[in-house]
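This part of the workshop introduces the protein records we will be handling. As an example, a complete record with its sequence and its structure tokens follows.
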Amino acid sequence: MDDRGRPIAVIAGASGFVGRAVAEALAADGYTLRLIGRSESVRWSDPDAVRHAVDGADVVVNLAGKSVNCRYTDRNREAILESRVSTTRALREAIAGADSPPRVWLNASTATIYRHSMDRPNTEADGELGTGFSVDVAAAWERELFAGSLPRTRRAALRMAIVIGDGPATRMLLGLARAGLGGTQFDGWCPPHRRYRGIGDRPTGSGRAPWHRTGGRQRFSWVHLGDVVAAIRFIRDDDSLSGPINIAAPQPSDNRTLMRTLRDVVGAPIGLPTRRWMLELGMWALRSESELVMKSRWVLPGALTDAGFTFAHTGLRAALQDVRGKARSPLTRTDFAAVTDRKSHASDE
């Protein structure tokens, strides 16, 4: 509790589009916010300030990490891994050293940790992990989260599917549809490269870019931003939920349906179908990677639904229509001037 009797929430990564929504929701719930980030009053470069921030907090939410909407150059690969592992380690060490550690720590992860799956869905109970760069990043992220003993803090890894909202993935997909490129995307042969090779101290995979003959039926697991926020609130309040937790809508789609729906939502009369090698050229121009739409992500929210969580957004079309055209301004310090615990951190600025 702060000096006004309000519970305290520590949020890392509040400048991202998911982080902004979570911060606003927790502020609305009556929390005093302590924000950690490179431009916040509490900075990763100051371990004492991070420890002071988590001490006495009720909940910690870590959404920090470099965006994966980039080319997987060696420099970006290292930054994607390090930005996730180092921030999670800093929080774990801070919580371990706190006199009054938080009751619950929710740390971002990704549903991309599962294998390319066309034959069956993956839940927390029976899911199979994949191989290669993105999987290695997720696995290292979660290992850091669950390392060591934090007996007074419940920990959960939020394995989020692709989030439908005013974020980079949704904007890119809607942009492709508006440009007439919203046709089915067929996996298959692609020019060989090694950008998806394993990384970290336990690298996996052959190092070659994987491809599969999916016929455009690669699965697309997604979740609406509103349900991400609702799930975080639900996990925060349910003491029985810990460990990896899938946050994905219970009705995943596939690529054909996704692209057809995108065309309908933006009113595009045509959508050119794309072969993998063609998409690779387009992604080079967009400075992104084809993994977003080529990997078959088939993920179901077993732990959440078993615990009684109800998704408000289960239809892909309605979810895309809900976010189409929405834009949000960047989070600023003044947005949370009334609820952020700045007075107690004046010495850390």
